[in-house]
Batch of 2 targets.
Target 1
Amino acid sequence: MKTRLLRLTPHENIYTVPNILTFSRLLAAPLVGHLVVHDYHAWALGLFAYAGITDLVDGWIARKWKLQTVVGTVIDPMADKTLMTVLVGVLAWKGAMPLWLAAIILSRDVLLGIAAIYYRYISLPPPKTFSRYWDFSLPSAEVRPTGISKINTALQLGLIGWTVGMPLMVGHGWGEALESGLVGMQYLVATTTIWSGASYLYTKDAVKILTPEENEQRAMKK
């Protein structure tokens, strides 16, 4: 029975360079938040830049050397959203971001998080145990970000970076112009955040539940 179960739900190798980079980005999120809280803006901006660079690099490495994994499709947006959640909360708490914008961003992420928990549960082959649920080497569903969602993530990261770096611009001649541009950016991000959240409702292949045959094919490629 155990052999049959392993055959039906094969494990995939999750210890790849792209996944390690993504995981490091996940760990960096609370540290960046800590730095912002204590007004270490230069360090916070530097670590935030590291997170942005690894977000680009891990995907490129995965595609070039065919290291894509199902868990990568899950933890990559998870790392982005963890970073966004921490920084949005911290910046709103410090008064650097409007509360209404923080509420829109965080509400969308909470709803998508609940949806991810639901899809993981219904797609996991039996037995649906706690340990198997959190074993991400057991692929069961694949997340495919929508086009507007990718644009929204880029805009959100740009807004966060802009906001984190604003204290470093105080006292310079272009500071006032940057503040005016920041307000426009906030309204743009509010629009794309709502749009991207809605896109998961009308995009049919945004979440794909993997069949046993697809799991077998993925296992054979490892």
Target 2
Amino acid sequence: MPLSLSSTALVILLSCTAFARAQQGTKDLTELLQSNENLTEFTTLLTSYGDIYANLSFQSEVTILAPNNDAFNRIPYSSLGPAFEANQSQIVRSVLQYHVLPGVHPSESYNGTFAFDRTWLQNTSYTNVTGGQMVGGVQQAGPVNVFTSGMGTRSTLVTPNLRFTGGIVHVIDNFLIPPQTFIQTAPQFNLTAAGGAIENASLADYVNTHKDLTIFVPQNTAFQALGGTLESMPSSQLQRILDYHIINSSTVGYSTNLPNGTVLRTRGGQNLTITFASNSLFVNQARVLQQDLLLSNGVMHVIDNFLDPNAPSVTANPEIPTGPPLLQGTSLSDNVVPFTSYLPTSVTSFDTASASATGSFAASDIGRGTSAFGSAAASASARSTRTSATKKSTAERVESPRLEVTIMGGFLGALCWVVGML
């Protein structure tokens, strides 16, 4: 349908506004990336995914967390290494999407309280969080800005607020890792008993795939204190206890969503109460030891003790480091951790995690393990060789659109001059 006169005028006005903005000296994305010598590897990678690159080039408000060249040198040592080495394009694409945040988030917008920002990662093969997977951001002493991602990965902001016509770029020193499932993440935080218990109680499918999951996970020592009793009880009874640690909600329970006095409904239909006291977060009587460990489908918080579905009204005592177990049972010796035999052997470490659940970046997902690199140094060298070989083709891909933009810019400048004279 032909544009009306008013619609045509609006298009011209918006185009002229964008043209004027460009004339004020703000670089476009291509110019910004090409002018930063510490982003050459990122530029090569990004421009090889033309659809993402083109989409970013036409954004008006977006934040890009761009790993620097040193971050690329560390890929062979990370869980992303096999995917990059094997050129698993869909995985790499999701990694790139995880580094893009809608909206402009300057470094000064972060403070000492964690903020969780949505990203472009919405592919349901890798995330099951409403609206897109999250990344955490906080300003620590220094001040130093840190971004947190899957497996507790920390990426430090090294060069902030590089502005381009579509938003800003923050240069970070480490890749963000898209969060993994619970069964893949738990062993990395020494939560092997919880992982095995979830398997034994037939809850693994739910916990790994349920959308917008929040789960409070007792540490291994809490399982050891009751291990003899827990291992001998029927799986249905164990499931009832574990259900009391899983929240039934359409909103992910990041710590920022859990103010003092929050009441949460569990999968078993009972309530939990959040308390903030003595600078600590509690759920019922249990102290939260680690907050906001991101999962592919939500978040988990590590707690020091079991929650008892038969004692939902018990409250926290912030005066003691760890309270006694509410559940009664026989303990195991210090070196015996219950339920670990139920863990799939392929998820005892992240590098060999199973790909059967959503969001795996593990060796079995791509058919290659970290041993496929030989030595990491050799792999880094091979990657550098490939990068050098693609520099020319990348430059050609970028230069052609720039010629078109230059021609269009001349025409648009003339058009805007005419509009300004009317």
